[in-house]
Each structure stands twice: as C-alpha cells, then as structure tokens.
Amino acid sequence: MKHLLLCVFAFSLLFSACKKEEIEVPPIPDVTESITVSEQGSNDETARNEYDQSIESAFKALETTNFGSRSADSGVILPCGIIKVDTTGGKHKIVYGSNCGRKVLSGSIVATLMPSTAKWQDVGAVIKLDYQNYTVLFEVNNQTLVFNGSILVTNVNGGLIYETITKQTTIEHKIRGNLNITFDNGKTRSWQVFKRRTYSAANGQIENLEAQIAADSSGNIAEVGITKAGENFITTIPSAFIYKNCSKGQAIDTFVLVDGKLVFTVNSNSLTAEAGYTLENETITPINNCSSIGYKLSWSIGGISKVEFQYY
Predict the structure, then answer these.
(1) Is 74's pLDDT higher than 70?
(2) Whole-angstrom Cα distance, residue 268 to residue 308?
C-alpha cells in the first residue's frame, strides 16, 4: 500500500484575473487547412502544465523517501528530474538537476509541514511548497520558465490516499498558491491558484482509483493572473479534470487525464481546453480513456476561430 502514496496527479489549468482595462488581443495561431500541434516552451499553456506537474513530482518525492533525507544514489527511485531530498529543521528541500524527457529541471522546492508537530494524515494539516528558482529548460527550443512563490496544500478531511481503497473513503486536498513565473522575454507574471483535488476508488478497488481536479472558488474560478504578454486573464473549470489509474491494478504510477474542461478568458477572447483526446491523421478525436494523449484547444480571438491539438 505504500506505493499508493505516490499518486499525486498532474493536470493543466489556465489562469485568470479581473482588472478591466484596454489590452492587446493575444496572438492566435495562423489559420491553416490542417490541424496544428502546439509546442512546449515559454508560454502560458506550458507554464500551467509545468507548475502542476511540479506539485505532482514534489509529493511523489516526499512520499517515496517517507519524508526522510535520501538521494538518488541511495537506491531510492526519485521522480524524473529530482536528484535528492535534503532534510533540515523539519523542512524537506527537493533538489532538481537532471534531464527529464525533452526538458531539463533545476532549482528546488522546499516542503514544510504545518504545524511542525502534525502528521500529514491529520485533518487540516498543511504542506507548504516554496519554489526557489524552479526552472524548466526545453531542449527543443532552448526556452525557459522560472517559478518562485508558494503553494499550500491542505488535507481537508484527513487521511492518506491509500485509504480510499482500504477504508473506501474520499480524500480531499485544497490547493492555494501565489506563483511568480518568469518567461523568456524577461517578464515575471503573478498567478493565483484556487483548486480542489479529490481522490476516490469505487468499491475500494485499486483499478477504480481516480482523482478529480476542480476549481475551488465562486464561479468555478481556478486561477487568476497575468499572461506572458501582460494581459489579465480568468480561468474557470466547468467540468472537473479526471485522472484514472491506467496501470490495470498492478501498480499505481500510471495515471492518465481522461476528461475535463476549462475556459481561459481575456476580455471577450477565450480559449477552451478539453481533455481526453487523441490525434490521428490530423483528426482530433475524443476517446476519454487510458489512450488519451492530449487536449483539444478551441480558440476564439478577435472574431477568429481556430482548433488546435496539444499533447499533455
């Protein structure tokens, strides 16, 4: 059951804000006859995905080491990009510094349990994640994203994730944060996060283990912030993102985003991202199962509509 603690799930969100002013219309991909595929890099869509993946990797590292101090050389398998977890004064410094697929991660995230006398399974226990120049370098285009700021994860009703199976309970985590993201144009933008993550397993079966990620504020607002281009934006999640256990009950490291929808809005312009799609022969098809590989992005900017596919 220890391995069940390793599942913290990734999903991409788009962010928002409420200040009304005259702003530039954000760029839209060129309209072409065929479906285009967006590339990872120093842009808002990728930034949303990367910060969320960082939460996943941080919790996997903490659970893998049992909140202890170990390094990759000790025989413990740490998540991709992490080289060690150092413990000092009740804090756990997750150090990044290696290649992870087509990107290189560096910098660190410091995790602190609050209060220090608590246990993570306690009702109301909080883990604070402090980002210290957490950097993502994309090898395909040499672009970077740099994250600083803090994320707070609260164990709302107590318990551990594996208890969704052993006790058939539902585990709920509240996520609040303020992140400063520096893009490759040298601009640093502030984003706020308002999310809720719920874990459950129908009939207590490991193959039914899933996480649902939703907005956790009025109006289904998930984030507020400023885009790379300096525009205020708002993101809502009208349909929760669902991650399913796709490991067929043999392990729990393989989770796939199979469903969910968000809407990213800048004034009258919008981008809708729907999860659970595949791309074959330039056709974007909803499948909503473990074979899902990306999002369908529907743009509506300046009276122009565009559909695009983006890999997870």
Answers:
(1) no
(2) 19
Pick the closest to residue 297 from 244, 261, 258 (CA basis).
261
Q: What is the pLDDT of residue 37?
A: 67
pTM of the model: 0.78
What's the number of domains the chain is made of? Answer: 1
Q: Which of 4, 2, 45 is nearest to 207 (CA)?
A: 4
Q: How far is CA 158 from CA 4, 124, 177, in A?
A: 16, 7, 20
Average pLDDT over residues 264-283: 91
**37 vs 308, residue with greater confidence:** 308
Question: Is 235 a domain residue?
Answer: yes
Q: Identify any residues that bridge with 129 across adjacent strands, giving them in sequence order.
A: 111, 151
> In the predicted model, what is the mean pLDDT of the chain?
81
Return d(Cα 173, Cα 259) in angstroms, integer. 20
Task: Spell out the residues 6+ positions from residue 233 whose beta carbon is closer than 8 angstroms to its own.
Answer: 14, 15, 16, 17, 44, 224, 225, 226, 227, 264, 265, 266
- Region 138-154: mean pLDDT is 93
For residue 242, tell me if it sits in a domain.
Answer: yes
Average pLDDT value for residue range 244-255: 67
The most confident of 75-84, 174-183, 262-271, by mean pLDDT: 174-183
Tokens of 46: 């990728």
CA distance 265 to 250: 41
Separation CA 184–CA 161 (nearest Å): 37
Residues of the domain holding 241: 2-53+80-311
Angstrom distance (rounded) from CA 119 to CA 123: 9
Residue 63 falls within a domain, yes or no?
no
> Across-strand partners of 107?
96
